[in-house]
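Minimal example, chain plus NAP.
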Amino acid sequence: MYDVIIVGGGPGGISSLIWCHRLGLKTLLLERREELGGSLFFVNNPIIDYPGLPVVNGQELQKRMFAHVKELGCPYRSGVEVQEFNLREKRLLTNAGEFRAQSLILSLGAIDRRLAVPGEAEMIDRKEVYSASRDKDQFAGKKVAVIGGGDRAVEGALLLAEHGVRVTLIHRRDRLRARKQYVDPVLHHPQIEILTDSVVTEIAGKDRVEGVWVAGQQVDGRPCPPRFVPTDAVFVRIGVEPNSHLLKGQLDLDGDGYVRVNEAGETSVRNVFAVGDLRTRPIFSSVAGSVSQGMTAAKTISFRFETEQEL
Ligand code: NAP
C-alpha cells in the first residue's frame, strides 16, 4: 500500500513524483514505456520559454528531468501498463500485478487527434508521419500539406516554408486561431498557400501520399467542387485528445473527454488527482503548466496527510 501512486511519466507525472517523494510520502510512479518523459519525446523544436533553459528539444529536457528523478532517488517502475483503474478503491490492475494506494495522481496525457478520413490510417501504417522540425530538410523543394489552424499547424508550416518546402496550409475555418507571432509571417509567405474554409475529405495515394482532396472552399461566396491538392506529405496538426478512455464512467469528464478537476487538481473522486494534458482543457497547455499542476496535487495530498490522518 502506497500513500500515492502516480500513473504516467510525462512532465506532470515527473513533477508530482519529485514533490511527493520530497514531501516524505510513500510514492511510486508507474510508466508503461521503458523511460519516463511522455510527450517530451515528441517535442522536436527548442524549448525556449521555460525558465532555466533553453534546450534544443524535448528529448534534451527529458534527459535532464530523468537525471533529476534518479539523482533524488525517486521511486518509479517503467514498462508497467495500467489495464484497469478502480478509482474509488484506488486499486490498479497492471501487467505487473495489482497496486494500491491512498491517493492517485493521473498523468495519462493526450494523443494526437486524427482527421478520420479515408487514407489516413494507411498513411500512418506506412509510417508517413513526420515532424516539421526533424524532417524539414527531407522536404526542401517539395510540396506538403499542413492541416489545422492552431499553433502547431501554423508554427510547423512556417518552419517548413523557411527551409524551402512549399506548403499548403489547410484550415476548416475562415481564420487561423494560432498566436499572432506565428500567423503574421505565414499570411504573406511566398512559400505558403493558405486554404481557409477547407475540409480535407481524403488522403490519396496507394504506396505513398500523392495528395489530398479538399472540399468546402468558396469563391465569391459560392461553393467550389472538391479540389485535388497534390502533395508529397501530409502533416495533421489538429490538436490532441485526452487519454481518458479507461476512466470513463468513474469520474466526471467534459464533453471532449477531459477530466474535470478543481483548483487543486482533484477530480470528482476524492483523493484522485489529474495533472497535465489529461485534465480539463487549460486555456494554454505547456510543460510549465503540467509541472505546476504536479506540485499542487502533491502539496494538497501532503497537506491532507498531515492534517487529517485519515484520508
Ligand atoms: P489546437 O490549438 O487545439 O488547434 C487545433 C486546430 O485544429 C484548430 O484550428 C481546429 O480548428 C483544428 N481542428 C480540430 N479538429 C479538427 C478536425 N477534425 N478537422 C480539421 N481541423 C480540426 O491544437 P494544436 O495546434 O495541435 O496545439 C496543441 C497544443 O500545443 C496547444 O495548446 C498549443 O498552444 C500548444 N503548442 C504550443 C506551442 C508553443 O507554445 N510554441 C507550439 C505548438 C503547440 P478550429 O479553429 O476550427 O477549432
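Residues 32 and 133 are 27 Å apart (CA to CA). Residues 287-308 form the longest helix (22 residues).
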